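Worked problem 6 (solution included).
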Amino acid sequence: MPAQQERLRAAVDAVVPAGLTPAASAVGVADFLVSEAVGSYGWAARVGAVLDRLDVAAAERGGTGGFAGLTGAAQQEVLAGLLGEPDVGWFATTVGAAYYADPASGGNVADAWGPLGWTPDPPGGWPDVAVPPEDRRAVIGHADVRERYDAVVIGSGAGGGVAPAELTAAGRTVLVVERGGFPDRAHLAEDHLRNARTDIGLDHRTLVPSRGNPRTLEIGGRTETVSPWDPRWGSNANTVGGGTRVYGAQAWRFVPEDFTMASTYGVPEGSALADWPVSYDAMEPFYSRAEWEIGVSGSTAGDAALAHRSRDFPMPPMPLTAPARLLAEAGSRLGIQTLAVPLAVNSTPYDGRPACARCRQCVGFACPVEAKNGSHNTTLVRAAATGRLHLLLGTRAERLTFDRAGRVTGVVLVAEVEGRRWRTEVAAADVVVSAGAVESARFLLTSTSDREPHGAGNDADQVGRHLQGHLYAGALGLFDDPVNDYVGPGPSIATNDFRHHNTDATGRLVGGGMIANEFVPTPTSTFLHLTQSGLVPRHGTGLQQGMDRLMPRMQRVVGPVQEVTSAESRVRLDPRVTDGLGLPVARLSGRLHPEDHRTAAYLGERAADWLRAAGASTVVVGGRRGDELGPSSGQHQAGSCRMGTDPVHSVTDPEGRVWGHDNLRVVDGSLHVTNGGVNPVLTIFANAYRVMDAWLGSDGRR
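Solution. The predicted structure is:
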């Protein structure tokens, strides 16, 4: 209705009024809230409550025309007084994020981006290169699923890409079951708001929609249902390639201490810290293979944690960006060693894919030129080329099937096809689970039998335990002069000086982590970082002025903390909540260990020192993650099916076989005993190659 629309326009334009840039309604934010957010996400009541609250506050000031009838100055005063209220604060953040994100609602986002000097395009424009087409030749329909395959692989991320490549090379027929779809590059390369890096209550384009896709979180004696856009849900991408389709592609190796955390540091009270059953030396050949098979650019120069390597990187590192050069000089003054960030990104043309175009949006987006390397454009392409791969989309693995002796015989699959429930049983000689730490554990727990009433491999109640991800630590710095050149792909310089053997004022720390400069800032990410740090207001002309001045002057240094595992951080089945297909959903519980927070505080201060040495005049250290957020998981999720040397304390043997099942293997990050102080994807790739080599042997592939 016109009156309601006027109320909404007044509210959004108070958050971002006309000034240096057009008002929020002029670039489509009000239309976005009405046409999509309110209709699709159930925000109508919440937005309506905010508008009512603004009108009440206006009346308390003596206004007779509601909030819309106040002067601009009075509106700003009302907003400032109400931002501490959760709903009003949420509304202001949502409007600001949409304003700087292009809500695709008919507005001209260039009006918002222009004063910032920002565009998604590379600084020199897009190169004229041949971009490989998305390889869909292995995709089949539900009617085309065979009754039997040599192997069924559940999930198509890093590990789920390696397994079918190795199996098909060995002459075996393989069905890969992917819960998500195979969206076009353009669908994943343009939206800043429905993005894995932006959590304001909208479904990410790489996730199955929220409707019918809940999980539950048990925390503080209560259980809450959460949606995929909620950070507590622990999202990983549901799409062909999994997280590798849209990740930031940092391709770090773990170092020797990462495999021997318990031996190196002891076992802190309240933790379940343990050593891996394999060493760095055993993993090294597979790290090398992963770097060359996937394609990694990098250099060992300046690596303070350098361990033995059998081969150099297949590509040189990406050139340092302007912020990286500034930080390199500062590192030299501080006496810390710095190195180029290893990336699964082509610094030169590689394996038929072009070099990185250096565009300004990488993490969270698909690469427009396919220079970012993941399973979707490497291992799965090779598997498809054999003609022995079938890729089934939009489908869930419901449970394993067993014979009377308890041997795995196949998988039951379920999907929604043309509005109807589709279910079938596929027989397989072998099953490989690679659905991510949360869903791999959930799947094993649903796979009960007379022999294993609590789930496959779960006789010792180990499936789902030791869930971990990465707590991030770091600092944000503001410089007096512009420092950003907006040259992608993002992280350009890092230090490994703090990976291990750190101490703070209270004594020795358990582990540590790498810290690096952040990805090229987008307008939306900058808005969120600056407002959450209290460096710009969330409304008014001060917001626009702050964004205009500070975006080119902002630099972040961050990194992942090697978490101390806990048996109480875990995945279980919720006994009451099911998803849209009727399957029990994952219930997450637990929290981070106190040692994680100690290490995060230490790394945050080291990041702050580095920024100050580089010339930052204002530095804000990241705050403590709240215990109410539950266990760590997310895009770096790991640990829920960890491997070991005995079935009492682990889910699989050192070669990824689920205890008691010689034809059931796990090949994703859930095998990780600990998750390192770096991004884990290269280790997932490498460990998958190791598991497959132990299974098939080098001579078993043809």
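Discussion: The CA atoms of residues 179 and 395 lie 5 Å apart.
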